[in-house]
Design goal:
heterodimer; A: mainly alpha; two-stranded antiparallel sheet; 12 helices; 68% helix; 2% strand; B: mainly alpha; 74% helix; 0% strand; globular; disordered C terminus
Chain lengths: 322, 379
């Protein structure tokens, strides 16, 4: 395997990891506040659709991004309404949102654009184009570091950089601000937060809204930066993979990044691994590699590799008085 | 607002509230139809007509409903035990292997009526097997069953594509499907039965597995409400601590409940594989496992509710297909929205109208009993 292949795989790992990272961090805020969210998938999907639709009609990628965020936040609020205000089952609500998003994107996509659920192809200013960092071309010929800088670090879309910057930012918010402390507390022991005179409801709503904003970024990245337009069911289970990464990383921001990179790498490498022959076993079926993130998650959840400890009050609606 | 919800009489709890939730779900779906520029009323008319307007449509509606009864029961049994089985899709998919093993292996040797019970056993066994690992991991290692069953859906999809592509497909072809089963592996259609009543089912694939579905309903009712195991499952669902205190083994109950749930989901494979296409094909459950969630929630976990709920979704499926001819803007995907809205309003938001309905009920009660109470109180 030569350097070019490594650079290629690394670059595509970064690209594939970005939506996972946004979505997993989105889930991090929500779940740390005690709201389980399996609707990351649906929110990403509706955001991908809304952003591509507006980017196509307005010709502006930024407007698209705003539409994506708005759509995802609306869906987040529905989830919040069901699980915070009306104390419904958070899993059921998440499942519902995934279905509504899947159906809505298909129906509206067909009705508005009549291209079998696709949005028109985006080009020019209606997409987030790759950004070429300074000196990328100049250092290309420097051995090892040159290709890595120009091929992996440079030439990504602005959303990619944003995603990776969100990781330290999230760490700072969660572990170094008052809001973060309260957010973590409300996911562990809402009664204590309530006793301190802080509104459990408002805290959780804020967490859910942040979750919506970040899934908005995730979806927009898929359709307006990585691809040039929305296609049917384009998230293809990425929301669940992000959820898996979140659990894998034990609900901590920096490990979340590594988990997303790992799952992204598996995805990026799966295409190349199909022809690799293992001794004794023979060629690895492509499906085995596709299934690997899911299998890994199951093994991890089972506590064979480290132990997943979810926020204590996760999934339990808070009742003020009994 | 944050008071626990008041207890309401059963007629309101099981009748009025679910009905209102359902109506709201359909009203919102109507808004979506309006948003794409079509008339919801005409859409509903076309849909009803497509699903029930002629015998063949009814046949298709009941054919889809058969699949949804199986998956709905699967989700419902798990719900009674306080478990959320989202893995019905994967369990049904893997259950297809059991059906195929019998139909492909014995289809040329035994008649269908001997193969059917064998296929029932084996498809249930395969579906149960696919639920076993998530169940065991939940009970023994505390991993969340919702996440593991979702993961197992994806693993099932990868596994089945691998098996179909590398082992089961007809050599030299590209289609991901097994060879067609011999005659003994084909369940008879119910065409003849309906002709006795003068109805022509035409090409509708309604088949004998519909009766298996009805038997499964009876079985689930007996199990949950008339056996010791069912009592234990419900205890576990209401209060795991009470179950533990009463000396019930949580590990055993979780595993057994999920095995039954997975087995019921696995039975779903009978309908499309052995009853309609006569071969195992790529992605045959086509979301039926997920429809089961909506069906179980709408049917409130009771077979008597699950059957009408499954027929309703069968109607949406068949009527939706017909609708797409007349209103190209509305495809069968509309059912996915409705499914989501039903899960949302009948499941997650079931408490939304409860306070208002509770208050209306209290006022109604007060007016009924108020004057007499005042009279006796005045003495």
């Amino acid at each position: 395997m030569d350097l070019n292949t490594v650079v290629d795989i690394a670059a595509s790992t970064i690209r594939v990891s970005t939506p996972l990272l946004f979505a997993a961090l989105a889930g991090l805020y929500s779940e740390r506040s005690g709201i389980f969210d399996i609707s990351l998938e649906g929110k990403m999907l509706i955001a991908a659709f809304a952003s591509a639709a507006l980017a196509a009609t307005s010709g502006s990628a930024v407007l698209g991004l705003l539409a994506g965020i708005l759509a995802a936040v609306v869906f987040s609020l529905i989830h919040g309404l069901a699980s915070i205000t009306y104390r419904g089952n958070q899993i059921v609500s998440g499942v519902a949102i995934n279905f509504v998003a899947a159906g809505l994107t298909m129906i509206l996509g067909q009705a508005w654009f009549s291209q079998g659920g696709r949005t028109p192809t985006l080009f020019g200013a209606s997409r987030f184009a790759p950004i070429h960092l300074p000196f990328a071309d100049a250092v290309r010929d420097v051995p090892v570091l040159g290709p890595i800088y120009s091929g992996v670090i440079s030439g990504q879309s602005i959303l990619v950089y944003l995603a990776f910057l969100t990781v330290p930012f999230t760490w700072w918010v969660l572990f170094r601000t008052r809001f973060g402390l309260r957010l973590r507390a409300v996911g562990e022991n809402p009664a204590a937060v309530d006793t301190a005179g802080i509104s459990v409801t408002w805290l959780r709503y804020r967490a859910v809204i942040i979750c919506g904003v970040l899934t908005g970024f995730a979806g927009t990245y898929l359709s307006v930066a990585q691809a040039a337009g929305f296609t049917r069911d384009m998230t293809a289970g990425r929301g669940y993979i992000a959820l898996a990464a979140l659990i894998f990383a034990n609900w901590k921001p920096v490990p979340v990044m590594f988990a997303c990179l790992l799952f992204g790498f598996l995805d990026a490498a799966s295409f190349r691994m199909q022809s690799v022959e293992l001794p004794l076993i023979g060629p690895i079926p492509g499906q085995a590699i596709q299934a690997l993130p899911y299998v890994l998650t199951v093994i991890l959840l089972a506590g064979f590799v480290g132990r997943a400890t979810p926020p204590k009050a996760g999934g339990v609606p808070y009742v003020k008085e009994r | 607002m944050s008071r626990p919800y008041a207890k309401l009489p059963p007629i309101i709890d099981y009748g009025v509230i679910p009905l209102i939730n359902l109506v709201v779900a359909f009203l919102v779906a109507g808004l979506v139809v309006l948003a794409v520029g079509e008339s919801p009323i005409r859409a509903a008319e076309l849909m009803l007509n497509g699903a029930f307007g002629y015998a063949e449509g009814v046949g298709f509606t009941l054919y889809y409903a058969t699949s949804f009864v199986f998956t709905g029961l699967a989700v419902a049994v798990a719900f009674h035990g306080g478990l959320f089985n989202i893995g019905g899709e994967g369990q049904a998919y893997v259950g297809g292997l059991g059906v195929t093993a019998i139909a492909l292996g014995l289809g040329g040797i035994l008649p269908w009526w001997l193969n059917l019970p064998l296929a029932v056993c084996l498809s249930a066994a395969f579906g149960a097997l696919w639920a076993l690992i998530p169940a065991y991991l939940q009970a023994k290692r505390g991993s969340h069953i919702v996440i593991t069953t979702i993961m197992f859906n994806f693993i099932a999809a990868a596994l089945m594509v691998y098996l179909l592509n590398d082992w089961l497909k007809v050599p030299g072809t590209n289609a991901l499907e097994t060879p067609t089963f011999a005659e003994g592996g084909q369940l008879p259609k119910l065409r003849g039965l309906f002709e006795l009543f003068g109805a022509n089912l035409g090409g509708a694939p309604l088949n004998v597995s519909a009766f298996v579905a009805l038997l499964a309903c009876l079985g689930v009712w007996l199990l949950i409400w008339r056996t010791r195991l069912g009592y234990e499952i419900r205890t576990l669902g209401h209060s795991p601590r009470a179950a533990r205190y009463a000396g019930m083994s949580e590990l055993r109950l979780v595993v057994v409940t999920m095995l039954i749930s997975g087995g019921l989901a696995g039975l779903m494979a009978l309908n499309p594989v052995m009853g309609d296409q006569y071969r195992l094909f790529n992605d045959f459950p086509q979301g039926a496992g997920f429809v089961g969630i909506a069906v179980a929630l709408m049917g409130r976990g009771h077979p008597a509710g699950i059957i009408p709920a499954a027929i309703l979704f069968g109607m949406l499926y068949q009527g939706g297909a017909e609708l797409a001819f007349d209103m190209p803007a509305i495809s069968r995907d509309m059912i996915v929205i409705i499914q989501g809205l039903v899960i949302l309003f009948a499941g997650a938001l079931e408490n939304m109208f409860r306070p208002a309905i509770g208050m209306a009920w209290a006022r109604f009660r007060l007016r009924e009993t108020g004057p007499s109470a005042a009279r006796t109180g005045g003495v």
